[in-house]
Specification:
single chain; about 120 residues; mainly alpha; 8 helices
């Protein structure tokens, strides 16, 4: 249902559903959805137990919603898939809890990247 809403251009509906699933604020979900790097979206999708396939579909759709001319390189997708797969659901859920409390968005991503780097 999430993907269908996004594919059909129903961004507000998608955001509303994602907010309910993740318990994140609308402003943060919009930021996650449209940031070019995709790492925040990867964390959020992992944290709510979406599959890798669904995460990549959401990422592609969100970037295309910004601009139909956006070219997503195979290298970027490979990096995102690697990042997504290195994140444990438990670690992603911890980050979501931090975001719900209003903690630093970028700081939480950096902290998770450091943890992933240590455990490789």
């Amino acid at each position: 249902m999430l993907l269908t809403a996004l594919r059909e251009g129903e961004v507000p509906l998608f955001v509303s559903m994602f907010c309910k699933l993740s318990n994140l604020r609308q402003q943060l979900v919009m930021r996650l959805l449209f940031e070019p790097g995709g790492q925040g979206l990867a964390i959020a999708c992992r944290g709510i137990a979406l599959s890798e396939k669904d995460f990549i579909a959401i990422y592609r759709q969100s970037q295309n919603a910004k601009s139909a001319d956006v070219e997503i390189s195979d290298e970027l997708l490979a990096q995102l898939v690697e990042f997504y797969n290195k994140i444990t659901q438990s670690a992603a859920a911890d980050v979501l809890r931090m975001w719900r409390r209003g903690s630093d968005y970028l700081g939480a991503i950096r902290e998770l990247q450091i943890t992933i780097g240590r455990h490789g």
